[in-house]
């Protein structure tokens, strides 16, 4: 997209491509004309409407549209990785606080290798990394700690040790990118593990307490810094240690 | 509204492990205050305090009322707190939790019962007309240690406030419009500032200054000491938690003395910057 377009909730988005508007041909419903909507956009009858305030982005190759905004309250969406805290245990699963309006359900069997006889026993207060599988306006969200297609954990599951902190949803989304400058800069200096939930919770773990605190603070401080400033900030933090 | 839930197990365990090594999860030392930003104005009696993530706004206003019959020569000081439900989980604007009541009572006690404001100077005509000074404290964001932030905001707003000037002509009181005659500051005897400590460990042997929200949730006891710039203790508050030894209280007082001077200097600078 050439120019930056800021949208507000309720704005109707014109998702027609430039060639579509010029040619005035009847649009054929095939793979090429299917529009994929990402975070911040919903389809209301025929029109595409923004539900969050932010900058509208689109990819003309894949015909994907999304809004990059920043807020602090999470609204669950299918497929997103989240970090949650177990708040209760029920007969069929756990209730997990993922920072959204309603707690998410985590079925007892939604773990790698879990069977009716052999399933993980999580205490209240345990931190888990999972993926949202059900998210709609009428049901509580549901998460799972494995990929139900492959049966493998793929990195999801209980997060033991380490430290979890909260950040804005905008920063969390930027951290999901493997090329996030602050993570790259930190990674070249110290070894650490990180699990980013797009619900604004980040779990970090390093070999000792001091390094974990350093990594957590560097990530929190990177909110309003560009790539160059991030590298400089991380360099200064590492020198101080 | 989601009920307030405590910190996760790994956060609590990590915090205690870090404290045992003398560090805190946000990288501060145990006696470090978070970054304190005070901004006053643009109108008289408006102060906003940012203490790390915590944000508190205080607003002072006044009006002429009839005094209480038993105190005909004293002005009235009203104190009100508002907890925004946007400030954090578990804060509900419809009902107030015990924690919220404890915070607002503490700040009210610090301002009113320490007699920081000269109530007699607010009298216009004895038994007839006095000034009612109203302090509204709004909690905008909850990052822990609301008491300290609220006390700083309230004091800064009171010191920044100007009330309309009054002249008395026999039995007539003339209240001058602020455009007509320069408004006058309140007469303030002293400036009480709260300094809060959090205690950790089974015996409360680890202490930190200015606890964050996470630290407040993990702590076993908290202790607030209120001092003014003349090194006088105005209030002590320790509601619940494990008992503390006299040594610990002595140590807290020494630390608090130094902090109160720093805070007072910052308030002074903020007021000067806005005028």
UniProtKB/TrEMBL annotation, chain A:
Domain of life of the source: Eukaryota
GO biological process, one term: U4 snRNA 3'-end processing
Cited Pfam families: KH_6, Rrp40_N, RRP40_S1
Ribonucleoprotein among keywords: no
Residue ranges annotated for the Exosome complex exonuclease Rrp40 N-terminal domain, each copy included: 35-73
An annotated Gene Ontology molecular function: RNA binding
A GO-annotated cellular component: nucleolus
Keywords: Cytoplasm, Exosome, Nucleus, RNA-binding, rRNA processing
Compartments in which it is found: Cytoplasm; Nucleus, Nucleolus
Main subcellular location: cytoplasm
PANTHER family per the UniProt record, alphabetical: EXOSOME COMPLEX COMPONENT RRP40 (PTHR21321:SF1), PNAS-3 RELATED (PTHR21321)
Family stated for the protein in its record: Belongs to the RRP40 family.
Name under which the protein is recorded: Ribosomal RNA-processing protein 40
Naturally occurring in which organism (per UniProt): Coemansia spiralis
Name of the gene encoding the protein in the UniProt record: RRP40
UniProtKB/TrEMBL annotation, chain B:
One GO MF term attached to the UniProt entry: mRNA 3'-UTR AU-rich region binding
Name of the protein this chain belongs to: Exosome complex component RRP45
Record's keyword terms, sorted: Cytoplasm, Exosome, Nucleus, RNA-binding, rRNA processing
Localisation: Cytoplasm; Nucleus, Nucleolus
Family the UniProt entry places it in: Belongs to the RNase PH family.
Originating organism: Coemansia spiralis
CDD domains on file: RNase_PH_RRP45
Upper taxonomic lineage: Eukaryota, Fungi, Fungi incertae sedis, Zoopagomycota, Kickxellomycotina
Biological process (GO), any one: nuclear polyadenylation-dependent rRNA catabolic process
Principal subcellular localization: cytoplasm
UniProt feature coiled coil, ranges: none
A GO cellular component annotation in the UniProt record: nuclear exosome (RNase complex)
Domain Exoribonuclease phosphorolytic residue range list: 33-164, 190-258
């Amino acid at each position: 997209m050439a120019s930056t377009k800021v949208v507000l909730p309720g704005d109707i988005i014109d998702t027609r491509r430039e060639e579509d508007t010029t040619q005035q041909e009847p649009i054929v419903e095939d793979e090429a004309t299917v529009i994929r909507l990402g975070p911040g956009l919903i389809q209301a009858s025929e029109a595409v409407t923004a539900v969050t305030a932010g900058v509208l982005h689109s990819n003309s190759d894949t015909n994907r549209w999304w809004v990059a905004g920043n807020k602090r309250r999470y609204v669950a969406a299918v497929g997103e990785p989240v970090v949650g805290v177990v708040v209760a245990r029920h007969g069929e699963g756990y209730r997990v606080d993922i920072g959204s309006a309603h707690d998410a359900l985590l079925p007892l069997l939604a773990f790698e290798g879990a069977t009716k006889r052999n399933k993980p026993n999580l205490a209240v207060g345990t931190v888990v990394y999972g993926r949202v599988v059900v998210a709609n306006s009428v049901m509580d969200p549901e998460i799972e700690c494995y990929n139900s297609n492959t049966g493998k954990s793929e990195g999801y599951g209980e997060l033991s040790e380490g430290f979890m902190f909260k950040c804005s949803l905008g920063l969390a989304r930027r951290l999901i990118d493997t090329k996030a400058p602050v993570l790259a800069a930190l990674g070249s200096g110290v070894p650490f593990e990180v699990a980013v939930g797009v619900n604004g919770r980040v779990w970090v773990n390093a070999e000792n307490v001091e390094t974990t605190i350093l990594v957590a603070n560097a990530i929190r401080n990177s909110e309003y810094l560009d790539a160059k400033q991030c590298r400089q900030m991380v360099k200064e933090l590492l020198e101080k240690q | 509204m989601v009920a307030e839930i405590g910190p996760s197990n790994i956060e609590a365990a990590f915090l205690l492990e870090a404290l045992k090594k003398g560090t805190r999860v946000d990288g501060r030392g145990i006696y470090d205050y978070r970054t304190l930003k005070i901004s006053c104005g643009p109108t008289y009696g408006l102060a906003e305090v940012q203490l790390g993530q915590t944000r508190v706004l205080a607003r002072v206003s006044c009006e002429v009322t009839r005094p209480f019959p038993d105190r005909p020569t004293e002005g009235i000081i009203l104190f009100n707190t508002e907890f925004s439900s946007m400030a954090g989980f578990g804060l509900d604007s419809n009902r107030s939790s015990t924690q919220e009541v404890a915070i607002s009572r503490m700040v009210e006690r610090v301002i009113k019962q320490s007699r920081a404001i000269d109530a007699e100077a607010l009298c216009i005509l004895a038994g007839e007309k006095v000034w009612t000074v109203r302090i509204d404290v709004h909690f905008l964001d909850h990052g822990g240690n609301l008491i300290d932030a609220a006390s700083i905001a309230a004091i800064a707003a009171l010191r920044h406030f100007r009330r309309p000037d009054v002249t008395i002509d026999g039995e007539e009181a003339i209240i001058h419009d602020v455009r007509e005659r320069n408004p006058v500051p309140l007469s303030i005897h002293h400036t009480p500032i709260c300094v809060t400590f959090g205690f950790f460990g089974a015996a409360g042997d680890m202490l930190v200054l200015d606890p964050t929200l996470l630290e407040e949730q993990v702590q076993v006891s908290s202790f607030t000491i209120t001092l003014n710039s003349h090194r006088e203790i105005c209030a002590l508050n320790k509601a619940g938690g494990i008992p503390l030894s006299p040594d610990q209280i002595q140590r807290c007082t020494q630390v608090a003395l130094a902090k109160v001077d720093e805070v007072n200097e910052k308030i002074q600078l903020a007021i000067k910057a806005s005028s």
